[in-house]
Amino acid sequence: MNRTVFRIMLILLVCGYCRAAFSVEKKCYPCYMISSPIKIDGQLDESAWRSLPEAAGFHILHRKKYAEFKQTFFKAGWNRKNLYLGVKCIEPDIGQVKVSKKDGDSRICLEDSIELFLFPKTLQKYFQFMVNMKGKRWNGIGAGGKVYPLWNWKAACFQGKGFWSLEVEIPFSVLVRTPADNEKWNFNVTRNTTVSGSGGNRYTTWARLKSGGFHDYENFAVLQFINRSLTVENSLKIEESLSPDFNSQTKAEIKKLLAETRGKESMLENNGEKTAFNGIITEAQKKLADNQAAPSELYFILSRLRQLQKKLTALEMQLLLDN
User: Is the confidence at residue 11, as pLDDT, over 50?
Assistant: First the structure.
C-alpha cells in the first residue's frame, strides 16, 4: 500500500463524520458492470455506455422542484478496478460559458462544473471530486477545507452544440475499497452553472438535499453495485423506472410546445430558418414516438423547442408593435 492510500485510509477511518439516520426517501442508482472498455475523452460514445441506465431529474438545491432549462443526466458503471461516471449537461448558453481554473484549484466549484460525492461503506468520511467544463480536476475529503494533492483519477470533457459532457474514471484504490456485489454506498452528483441567459438554476443536485449546500451527506442518494452487466433492452427498462415523473413532465411539455408552434413557420423570414423549424418539429415528433429515446435526448429536443418558441414569441411581439 503506497503512502497516499495509507494517509487517505487513516483520515477516513480515524477522524470522520458519524453516519446519521437518513431523513428523506433516497434515490437509488443501480451501478452495473461495464461490458467493454471506456476511453476517457468526454464523449460517452463507447458501446459500454449504451448498456447502462441514464439517471435524470436533477433538483434545484434544497427544493423538491426539478431544475428548469438546464437539466443534467448521468450514467455510472464499474469493473473490478475502476468506477466510471458519464454526465451530460444541457447548456443552451454554452458559447457564453467561461472557465479558467486549473487542476487542483478548489475554486472550480465557482465555474460551470460537476461535483461527485462518494461515501464508501465502512468509511467515516466521504470523497468529493470536482471537474469543470474543460476537464480540470479537484479532489478532497469531507467538508473540512483541507488541501489534498490530486489523486490518480481521470476526467475529460467534450463540448457540443447546446450541451457539454464528461467522463470520469476513479480507481477503487483511490477510494480505499472495492465494493462487493449488491454493496451500497451513499453518493451524489451535483452541478454548478454560471450563465443564466436562457434561464436555469445556479446549483442543482440529483439527490434531494435539505441543508448544508452540497455537503448534506445524510441525504445523499444510494449507489448500489451489481456484479453483472446489462443488455441495452434491460437498461432501457431500468432507465424508465429511475425518473418516471420527470420523464412524463418532459414528454408533456414537448407535446404542449408542438401544439403551440404548429403552423407558425410562415412567421420566419427565410427558407433556412423554415427548414430548421421543420427539422426541430420532425425530430421532436420522432423522439416522442421512440420508446427507446433516452431522457437526455428528449430533454435536449425540449430545450430546442423552448428556444424556438422564444424566437416565435419575439416575432409575434414585433408584429404587434409594427401594426
Answer: no
Task: Report the distance separating Cα 48 and Cα 56, nearest Å.
Answer: 19
- Look at residues 140, 143, 147, 139 and name the one whose alpha carbon lies nearest to residue 168: 139
Q: What is the mean pLDDT of residues 96-107?
A: 96
Q: 191 and 207 in contact (C-beta within 8 Å)? A: no
- Which are the contacts of 135, defined by CB distance < 8 A and separation ≥ 6? 42, 155, 156, 157, 166
Counting residues of the chain whose pLDDT is more than 90, the rounded percentage is: 70
Surface-to-core class of residue 36, CB atoms within 10 Å of its CB (0-12 exposed, 13-18 middle, 19+ buried): exposed
Question: Contact 109/115 with Cβ under 8 angstroms?
Answer: yes
Q: How much is the average pLDDT of 283-312? A: 90
DSSP state of 33: E
**Grid cell at residue 209:** 438535499
The 10 Å Cβ neighbour count of residue 169 is 17
What is the distance between the alpha carbons of residues 34 and 146, in angstroms, rounded to a whole number? 34
**Domains recognised in the chain with CATH numbers:** 3-238 (2.60.40.1190), 243-322 (no CATH)
- How far, CA to CA in Å, does 265 sit from each of 163, 253, 309, 311, 320? 26, 20, 11, 11, 17
CA separation (Å) from 207 to 22, 46, 62, 199, 286?
Answer: 12, 27, 10, 21, 31
| Residue pointed to by grid coordinates 439527490 | 207
Please say whether the beta carbons of 114 and 131 come within 8 A: yes
- Output DSSP code: residue 106: G
Give the pTM: 0.88
End-to-end distance of the chain based on CA atoms, in angstroms?
A: 77
Half-sphere exposure of 98 (CA within 13 A, CB side): 1
Distances in whole angstroms, Cα of residue 128 to Cα of each of 99, 117, 138: 20, 5, 8
Spatial contact of 77 and 46, defined as CB atoms under 8 Å apart: no
CA 303, distance to chain mean position in Å, is 16
